[in-house]
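Notes from hallway chat w/ T.B., transcribed later so I don't forget. T.B. wanted the structure written out for a chain they're using in a teaching module, and asked if we could keep both sequence and structure tokens in one place. Agreed to drop them here.
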Amino acid sequence: MTTPSAAATLASPSQSLFSDSGTLAQDLVEAFLAVRGETERRAASLSAEDQLIQSMPDASPAKWHRAHTTWFFEQFLLGEHSAGYTPFHPDYAFLFNSYYVSAGPRHARHRRGDLTRPGADAITAYRRHVDAAVVKFFHEASEEKLRTIRPLVEVGLNHEQQHQELMLTDILHAFAQNPILPAYDPAWRFPAATRAGGEWVALQEGIHSIGHGDDSFHFDNEKPAHRALVGPVRLSRNLVTNADWLDFIKDGGYRTATLWLMDGFAAASNEGWQAPGHWREIDGRWHVMTLGGLRPVDPAAAVCHVSYYEADAFARWAGKHLPTEMEWEVAARAGQLNDAFGIVWQWTRSAYTPYPGYRAADGALGEYNGKFMVNQLVLRGSSLATPDGHSRITYRNFFYPHHRWQFTGLRLADYD
């Protein structure tokens, strides 16, 4: 098995899943089957037992991810646009809806691991049924209809790509709880961090356009584009490494309360954090649980699986800050950041709030992003688990400040 994502080699983000090289029906079919196939490729090495486990409330079983992304197309595409379509199973809408209150009741998120039935094979049958129905719909629908539903299909495919990343982060968390420390892919290797150019990128004070500014695909939280004052500031060209983090640990960073936000120090104390997530000390040497199994920590690699609280404490220890998402976007747009994409999502100190003038979409899909715009922090870039073609400079990922099971890291900012 190869590395889970080609995104680790991205030099720049791409913005469209469609080739636009054939008829509209052909382009839709090709893009749809490519994304759906990638989900199955990521699940291929997982046993039925692997696909059932839910190791914590924030994670979901791989089987559920496969089913939920299928329900999305059944509910919003086939159910609303394909006349006469009958759902594959009457219980699946309840079992595999996630948080779309407008779409009806749903099984509790923290109990998804209780669903021994339907089994993994039944979910495979479900996916095949819906895939066949969608492809048939694309071939039979009018050109006008296809133009109408194309944006919905693109949302659905990008939604599935988000779950492809979650499949890897969630199974890694589950495997990290297993005392025999199984590998998702024994051949997997953490991508190498880049070291090129100067240490800092200087941004002079200026007003810049922030957010998605054209009609290519984007999520609603990336708009509207607006003007923001940025700088003067210097951003680290490179990601913070494990070597940097080992120095933080040796200097008592996890024990020094003055480095931490109050909630962060409470979380670190209550959870017993002494190092990033998935790290463990064996015979005096730090190791990390990876998709390839347990490996010695590579000092040259970018630090990964750190929460916002840890990132903020590290920045304070280093005498620096975390950048804002606006600063990150301006520097990334200028191509001045090494490894902006494809290794770790990078914490910013920006709260996940709506851009000026933001309006959520009408209907159930309006629940996709807007209702989460409180108490979370923005991350920018993409990670080694992000599917190829899913990255954008304006992409706004978001998590709660204590979360660290994702592939999350950081770069620093300096205002001196």
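Follow-up for T.B.: The two ends are 47 Å apart (CA to CA). Might be a good example for the class.
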